[in-house]
Amino acid sequence: MGATTSPSAVERSAIRKVSIRLVPFVALMFFINYLDRTAVSFAEPNGMGHDLALTAAQFGFASGVFFIGYIILEVPSNMALHRFGARRWLARIMVTWGIVSLLFTWVQNSEQLYALRFLLGVAEAGFFPGAILFLSQWVPTRHRTKVLALFYLAQPLTTVIGAPFAGWLIGHHGLFGLEGWRVMFLFVSIPAIVIGVIAWFYLIDRPADAKWLTPAEKDWLTTELAAENSTKTGNKESHGREALKEAFRSGRVWVLAMVYFGFIYGLYALAFFLPTIIAGFQDSFGTSFSVMDKALITAIPYLPAAVVLFFWSRHATRNGTRTWHVAGPAVVGGISIPIALYMGSPAATIAVITVTACSIFAALPVFWSIPSRFLTGAAAAAGIALINTMGNIAGFAAGYVTGWLKDFSGSYTLSMFVVGGFMLLSALLMVILSRRRPADPSNPADQPLLEVH
């Protein structure tokens, strides 16, 4: 997709209002979502691992089993969101996962930890693809990368802000008679319940119902989105089983799902094990860190990642999305992550990991602008959920395989080579997809998704 012409005043004002009214709130929901699902990574090296007698493989399984529950219900959840509306469904998801997350405060053994992580995945199922679908239904394709980038900023910023916050909470050992890591679980769970209730009243399902848009802005958004949708599905929107068949039969959807698998494998390998790797610096390099020191070091790679995400996505929006906007970061991340473990100091290791984090986060919002270019309605709900399901499989695999390989080999070196391999595979698949020739050149829905440059 090439660069676009200058937008009209109505277009600019409509996109600006959506960016101000909706995107920050949905990003806040995502911030809380990512903090709750990764809180276990802060708890493990700061008391939970010792108190529950967890091995690396057991912690890896506990990290990853979350995604099994998510996988089982993800596609049905997104289809329900399409049927009942994002306002009701996203609010329901938040309140449910907040309640489950709260129960981690009183977990007593590894079996209870496994059960609660599984239930957390069941409760959260559909949130992320539902949020992507919701935002995609508010802005035309040419603005989607920008909007998704603003939304995606919440993920790296969760660690930038959440890691020190988690460290601060863990430091309150003894509050209410609880260990520090239990105090953390208690206080990171409550916001999900509160914001979930607010979301029920704040979110709006479609532009036509937004009182904060002028009639001209409503008409422009509705007309633009309807015109785009008609070209994607040949003026016929599929429903129910037909929508599922359309998504599951699409070769593009499956290739994009595998591309996403590689990125998410890398993302969660870092998210779940970076705090543990940092704790290991004390043995590897003879250093000593407090709980807050480790939290701040964990946050370091994610602040530059947020900056790179913003400017990379802005470049894609202004100049048109190219293959290298996704494939390039995959190559850089795939090469850098195993190199990190060969550095001779904590500072050098974190510097290289920062490059990996920047690579992953640069590509993700650009990637998510692609599926909605050829899917709409219920088919988009099913397709986006299917792609994210592969990401959840990667999340499970990253947690379990990384921990198992660490126990097997005695270090994280082999695990990080596996991460790098999956990211390089994502780059290769992205290039192959971009070179696919349209089967029907006259069909707009069958045109190449990206320009090859």
Automatic annotation (TrEMBL):
Domain Major facilitator superfamily (MFS) profile per the UniProt entry, residue ranges: 22-438
Keyword Membrane: yes
Chain ranges passing through the membrane: 18-35, 55-77, 89-108, 114-135, 147-171, 183-203, 253-275, 295-312, 324-344, 350-370, 377-400, 412-433
Gene3D superfamilies cross-referenced by the UniProt entry: MFS general substrate transporter like domains
Topology with respect to the bilayer: Multi-pass membrane protein
Record key words, sorted: Membrane, Transmembrane, Transmembrane helix, Transport
One GO location term (cellular component): plasma membrane
Subcellular location as annotated: Cell membrane
UniProt-listed CDD domains: MFS_ExuT_GudP_like
Keyword Glycosyltransferase included in the entry's annotation: no
Coiled-coil annotated residue ranges, if any: none
Molecular-function annotations in GO: transmembrane transporter activity
SUPFAM superfamilies reported in the protein's UniProt record: MFS general substrate transporter
Family annotation (InterPro entries): MFS (IPR011701), MFS_dom (IPR020846), MFS_trans_sf (IPR036259)
Alphabetized Pfam families for the sequence: MFS_1
Annotated function: Component of the tartrate utilization system and may allow entry of tartrate and tartrate dehydrogenase.
Protein name as catalogued: Putative tartrate transporter
Source organism of the structure: Streptomyces paludis
